[in-house]
Amino acid sequence: MGCDITNNSDMDMGELSLLIGDLAAHIQDTMKFKSMPAITMQDDDENADALLGRTAQYDPQNKVITVYVTRRHPKDIMRSIAHEFIHHAQNERGEFENVGSMGEGYAQADDHLRNMEKEAYLQGNMCFRDWEDGYKRNLMESIHRQNSFKRRNNTMKIHKWKNNELNRLLMEKFGLAEGEYNRSEEEEENEEGEEQLEEIDTREEDEAFNDPEAHAARYKKSKKKDEEEKQEESFRDSVRTLMEKIINLK
Ligand SMILES: [Zn+2]
Known about the structure:
With 250 residues, this protein is an alpha/beta fold. The protein folds into two domains: 5-97, Zincin-like; 135-248. It is built from seven helices and four strands; from the N terminus they run E-H-E-H-E-E-H-H-H-H-H. It has helices at residues 14-31, 45-49, 74-92, 106-109, 111-173, 184-206, 212-248; strands spanning 5-8, 38-42, 56-59, 64-68. A four-stranded mixed sheet has the order 1-2-4-3, with helices on one face. Helix 1 (14-31) packs across helix 5, helix 3 (74-92) crosses helix 5 (111-173) and helix 5 runs parallel beside helix 7 (212-248). It is rod-shaped, with a radius of gyration of 29 Å. Zinc ion is lined by residues 83, 87, 117, 120.
């Protein structure tokens, strides 16, 4: 079941709403609530400037989470939402029945509300943390899958190259027309494929929360690529030499 998000703010919700939907599904799975609350993203300039301004609230009657988003980091917004989701789970368990007014100081004055608040902090933060780790792990796995696809693609490239090279050598050996051998078309095709893969790769890494480790990994990867290209070139040289020897055997 999806999560109904209303954006009453200036914030661009394109990517964030997908992440919130994913987080909502994870928390629902963990906390086992049946219905999904609605979420409203709210701009509030005055509140944003207040040192202890409101961050989010949950309305148990209408099952709506309101989150104040002005000048907040997306991760902070998501952590707030996770917290309010736990209050929603408590609501489904009937824990909001017979609670008094939730005015200022409710988290200290009322033991029941205090325990509800404790659970929301603990479970909300842990749910967010587990979701975040899982999300990053999935991201890394998809990068890994893409790299192995790329390796397979390179192997195919070598096979095609070998066949073409063998063709060329045979034609030379038996004096056939050189024009019949056309390697440029296939090579261009392969290079295009490779460029596309690299584009996908970079985009996915950029989404990995922009941490410095990702930059270091990218640098390492480009060094590794140079190394691989050198190895590939010397591999081609030795295969070419071998094929020449085979063809010239009487
Ligand atoms: Zn709370």
